[in-house]
Amino acid sequence: MNDVADLPVVPLVIDLDGTLLRIDLLHESTLMLLRGGPHRLWRLPLWLATGKAHMKREIASRVTLDVAGMPYHEELVAWIRSERDRGRRIVLATASDEALARAVADHLQLFDDVLASDGTINNSSHRKAEALVARFGERGFDYAGNSGDDLAVWARARRAILVAAPAAIRRAAGQTATIEREFAGSAGGPKAWIKALRLHQWMKNLLLFLPLLGAHQIFDPALLYKVTVAFFAFGFCASSVYLVNDLMDLESDRHHPRKRLRPFAAGVLSPLAGIAVAGVLLICAFLLAWWVAKAFFAWLAVYFVITVGYTFVLKRKPILDALALAALYTLRIIAGAAAVALPASFWLLALTLFLFLSLAFVKRFSELQVMLGQGRDEAKGRGYVTSDLPLIQMMGVVSGFAAVMVLALYINSEAVMRMYKRPEAMWLTIPILLYWITRVWMKTHRGLMHDDPVLFAMKDKVSIISGLMFLLVLWLAT
Prior knowledge:
Shape: elongated
Number of domains: 2
Number of strands: 6
Radius of gyration: 27 Å
Distance between the termini: 72 Å
Number of helices: 22
Low-confidence stretches: 1-7
Strand content: 5-15%
CATH class of the largest domain: Mainly Alpha
CATH architecture of the largest domain: Orthogonal Bundle
CATH topology of the largest domain: Farnesyl Diphosphate Synthase
């Protein structure tokens, strides 16, 4: 870093996308447009044909971004504030549309002026450099940026400030400008992708093996191999949808104390990369599904359609969102049966539908508790309000107890008498399931539940022990 204490105070110019913000406003606004329905994207090529600045203006005129919740480079913001306190003129210069740029500037109250794309001129790279030189003169300003588009500006600036710049950009900037200081970016890489893909959620796909377990064919090598391939197909499909779901939920996630740390919400991963990876995963999922069985392929397609419907529509519809989540779990069992051409047990489907409906209400209840604790009346991007808490709790508890009732009726059915040598031992599963559901809702009521109850069950020692005891009883009955 150079000693700049004796340098004259010249205007400090700050880039917006990837610099002041960890995100790109064009990507964000396009995603916001997409949330209104995929059909709205057909206009993009027509707008782009008129020019990129025109496309940005058209998108900006149709969306309202929540600039207060966006991920800023806080260290940079603090430094800008200190420079402003010194009496330095601060200018925001960006290729984003002027309406969006001014919304950010109005929120931060740090900038004396804003230079942005105006619907005709795309204020990027050389155009931005020319505009700044025309206003402040050659070498008459310092500039903070992060990408290759900023190299043309740094070449005309007095000093360069690098923010989260890749190594290649840093080397190129060092050849054309004097670097005053640098600000590090957020760590991305494999860990961020593992978090974004939610590989831990693949545990839910173990439901695919339940038809084999229920038919007492879990040790058949050929069938087990097919279901294992089906497991990965569902995993790829689920991760693909998780990526899209996170991209559609950016605004609501940023208002959540834990979800705001998700890689896309935090600006650690690029939305464009997320869309590309989601597409590749989806193709792999359906290729594997076609190999497993055509019937399995069809059920995976149904699962995908429901998840997409949930992402764009159903998650905003009270009750329907919980029913959709429960149906997605039950579909895993139906698909697992289809993968190996086994009949799907009515009892198993009914049990899991009620059980996972209860857990879906747990998820919504815990989210609303967080909103209530923040003094908010509703969950952003959802159809619930905090006054729904007692009703959601009632529906969730009733659904859980209905699952216990289905299990009791199943144990008393002729199917159990035929399949198990000691059917009376099966009754031990009733208190195990009843205790677990009651405990889950007790923890939820006390505000101790994770947003995802399935993830909670995977980490909770009591839940793991309960599950092992349940399986032990089944083994003893067999």
